[in-house]
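Homework help board

Subject: predicted structure for assignment chain

Our instructor gave us this sequence and asked us to write out the predicted structure in token form, then describe one feature. I got the tokens but I'm not sure how to describe them. Can anyone check?
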Amino acid sequence: MNLTSPLEWLKSEVRDRPALNRFSKLVLRYCRAYTTAYPNWKKVEGIADSFPSLASGKKILIATSVGSHLPGTTLESLIAAALKVRGAEVHVFLCDSVLPACLGCEYAWFSHIEQFVREGPQKSLCNTCFSPANKMFSDLGVQIHRYSEHLSPGDWETAGRISRGTGDSEIPEFVMEGLSIGEHALAGTLRFFAKASLDGEPQGAAILRRYFEAALLTTFATRNLLGKVHFDAAVFHHGIYVPQGLIGEVARNAKVRVVNWNPAYRKQSFIFSHDDTYHHTLMWEPVERWQNMLWTAETEVAIVNYLQSRWHGTQDWIWFHDRPNFDVDAIYKTLGLDRSTPCIGMLTNVMWDAQLHYPANAFPNMLDWVVETIEYFANRLDVQLIIRVHPAEVRGALPSRQPVVAEIRNRFPVLPKNVFVIGPESDISTYTLAELCDSVIIYGTKTGVELTSMGIPTVVAGEAWIRNKGLTLDATSRESYLAILDQLPLGKKMAKEQILLARKYAFHFFLRRMIPLELTVPTTGWPPYRLDLQNTDQLQQGESVGLDVICDGILNGSDFIYPAERFISARSCAEQDAS
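My token output:
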């Protein structure tokens, strides 16, 4: 793409005017972002002389890979600089236009999907990916490894041969030398389409094959790099999809410590995890990490206040309603609910998001869970089931192309009279709705952390992070799920002791695991944050507790837990002394 004339590029690719108008807004936003939004490290005071002349510390690989993923490149450049200040030898891994598909590709970018099948991202996206990221990291003086440098002609031939020789239906389950290559290829493809399955996509198999070959090439390039250079840790965002999921697979196989991260929900905060993506690790985090934390009246007030703020999103940079509707009477009237019949809530999540294998799930996918649940409650006229479809289906960064409402209508042209559906566009507050319910059933939403803190009994059928904390009714099979539903309605809230434990976990989840970085500042555009850094003194040990926690975790393997309770208690003591 020629960044100086995006409309000319659009006109050559898009023939009809409505599509041109739609895509022009998208691409103009894209072009403005990618020409101005990369951190300019040359302008940071002291950048030339703040790093040790000879790094003698641990070797860390920042496996950014997709340079155009601005939230990733922005934060990972900050991490690279902070690690260098601490004496680490930092390397960066970047794709230089070699992958036939990747995380940077989305369905909406292509006016004709056949174009992507024929050309991949090289002619349209790659020009704005590698070069600016390469320049930014070069300004930091880190060693940059290009994908192409670590792919031999034999690797290319092998990737093509395996791709051609693997059937469409075999790709998702494809495993090579213990590496789940097919799983991440499928997850990447579903993310591309913003759907939970490829059913009904004429080009679905062709694009899956592109992601499969990209997954193979990433595997070979990463394996070759790790064979040449011994790294103490590999750090990269997401930890799933293509290419990040494969980097994690290879690094773990090579006994290289893996650190994954993502932007968190709270403003200026990020969540880091050891060994694997947080989608997996949070489900199995030991309860000892939070059950016995310092707990005072001040810490309880802090988490209750934060949870209340989430009703409006005032402390978050990820929220879905500007003006949520909290009117209880309006909810009853709009849905036509019977006030004398108990309500059971049901919260969905975005169907395509993080489509990975979770052995603890009671159902193979969320849609099966939705269908089974509606069929069950059709025979339970003693209760009302209210399905709240996740607002991110229409308000998220990648709007879903497989809406839950449409899937429900397809399976149930006429809903059972005791089943009600609230669409993703509705401004009805999920929290107010939950308060009307005897209990709430969830699949993979993080809202379970909040529901239990409100004392609302919660049933977990999928990969929700509140699972395995001793706070919810966790289903591990279809049979166990139906047995739990047979117990509903429960007719009572959670016990006070359980609510206290739930609030402790909520504090741990939202205020400790989500690590604040004051050097990141929210923006109103893309990327969602920028760096606020005047000089490299701000990167030194002791200047930012959050940055220290992150760097210590990367360098030494310590827990990525921010000690928020200490600061709250210290602030309370200081306020008492002042009074």
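Reply (TA_rk): Your tokens look well-formed. For the description, you could write something like this. Confidence is low (pLDDT under 50) at residues 1-11, 13-17, 573-579. That's the kind of observation they're looking for.
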